[in-house]
Amino acid sequence: MTASIVIDNIGELTTHDPELGAGIGSRMRDAAVVVEGERIAWVGASAAAPAADTRVDAAGRALLPGWVDSHTHLVFAGDRTAEFEARMAGEAYAAGGINVTVEATRAASDAELEANLTRLVAEARRGGTTTLETKTGYGLTTPDEVRAAHIAGRHADAVTFLGAHVVPAGSDPDAYLDLVTGPMLDEIAPFVSAVDVFCEEGAFDGEATARVLAAARAHGLSTRVHGNQLGHGPGVQLAVESGALSVDHVGFLDDADIAALAGSWRGEARGTVATVLPACDLSTRMPLAPARQLLGAGAVVAIASNANPGTSYTSSMAFCVATAVLQMGLSVEEAVHAATRGGAIALGMAEDGWYDPRGVAHPRIGVISPGARADLHLLDAPSVTHLAYRPGMPLTAAVWRAGGRVV
Ligand code: NIG
Prior knowledge:
Elements: E1 4-14, E2 27-36, E3 39-45, E4 54-57, E5 62-65, E6 67-69, H1 81-88, H2 98-107, H3 110-126, E7 129-135, H4 142-153, E8 158-164, H5 173-181, H6 183-188, E9 194-199, H7 206-218, E10 222-227, H8 235-241, E11 246-249, H9 255-263, E12 273-276, H10 278-283, H11 291-297, E13 301-303, H12 317-328, H13 332-339, H14 341-347, E14 354-355, E15 361-362, E16 376-379, H15 386-389, E17 396-401, E18 404-405
Parallel strand pairs: 1-4, 1-5, 6-7, 7-8, 8-9, 9-10, 10-11, 11-12, 12-13
Antiparallel strand pairs: 1-2, 2-3, 5-16, 14-15, 16-17, 17-18
Helix pairs in contact: 3-4, 9-11, 12-13
Bound molecules: N-(iminomethyl)-L-glutamic acid.
Cofactor: Zn(2+); Fe(3+)
EC number: 3.5.2.7
Function: Catalyzes the hydrolytic cleavage of the carbon-nitrogen bond in imidazolone-5-propanoate to yield N-formimidoyl-L-glutamate. It is the third step in the universal histidine degradation pathway.
């Protein structure tokens, strides 16, 4: 028999389900949630909550969906503190630092890489993250990339192939592009659900990016783009034209980019999510992505941590949400939506029946509504507003993932 849990006496419940309350956050007061197995079975007024095997008294605190972190790079070894210090002393971030991590990652054993990944995933869970995408991209040889995909597949909810991160030191750019779009992709394709490409000066130009995206589509894989991170470039337009699930960073956008991202949601097909990475913008001392303008134009926005050793060594989604509110002009509801349901849309997990890397199908995530996966984040605060009102405070009180208590 499936075990059930009732969480009642919830002071404020953020559902993202328009049927349960108006507005983007759809906040309910004095609510309860019933979980059966891995799914949410019931949502309603606390006073009307049915009994369950286990009762959790939320004591008036806020409950929201677990964070959906749709952009991380967690299969790596080594340390880049010195590069960070140099940046804080005024040096600009350049894509070349990636090769420092590539060297350390290649030299690490499987066990070392897996131990580091496990530690970082546990850290993210403690902060309320229940779904996590991670990328390859620090191997950049076929065996090293496939190894990263296998290790990531044992711990992440989605694995993305980022062989097109940079041209590895000592490689010929044309030959490497042939490898990444040919034999390397052929070998790794069964173990990943999407392909990503870093479209930027110092990494891959527009022509190379278009080739990577076309090769991915030919394998039936979804696509994402690292675009417009360090300056204006063709990444956003290429992502939208090719039907990418998301384009991430989006720091340097012109009006045509914003219009393209917003317009991508107006047709029959789903559009391209604009994923902003506030912690990365701060750590690289880049302008913050124009999330307010994107939302105003009608684009779908996600917030992710971009946890990686170079540009954003944090998986704190609460920090990203606080930054989005305090410095990017989003309302708390908009930021929380972007860090939960927005991430789910970016990963193609907002509908029932998505598959994890182990081949297991799951219900939709990013919402608290009957039938959705029970990914729940209880705050030690009466309202999600405290995420921005009390930035930097450890507000995570409890976390359930697929109905199981993980924190
Ligand atoms: O998303 N932009 C490219 N990739 C990572 C940085 C990786 C690194 O510097 O190690 C990012 O910021």
